Amino acid sequence: MSYYERHVFFCTNDRGEGAERPSCNRCGSQAARDHAKQRVKSLGLAGEGKVRINSAGCLDRCEEGPVCVVYPEGVWYTYVDTEDVDEIIDSHVVGGKPVERLKI
């Protein structure tokens, strides 16, 4: 058994201004991760045996970003706003059903 039922990693890498490649944090990924963490806590889903929301360094899919990945399934997502993040939480993290329209 895994320590967490689901583990969600949000790329929060920031390459800085003038970088050749985009970076997820320049697309608001830190705020999206903060929102997801708070939402999971408010739903009573945080903690051992439940759900963990984490920041990650570069996940190397920045051109498709911002990105997050949900384990143990290994499903990759992009998102635009907190409504997309809520849909990932409600459908996949809680309901076990990946959000097809946001998958990359």
Automatic annotation (TrEMBL):
InterPro entries the record matches: Thioredoxin-like_sf
Origin superkingdom: Bacteria
Protein name: (2Fe-2S) ferredoxin domain-containing protein
Organism, as annotated: Elongatibacter sediminis
Lineage: Bacteria, Pseudomonadati, Pseudomonadota, Gammaproteobacteria, Chromatiales
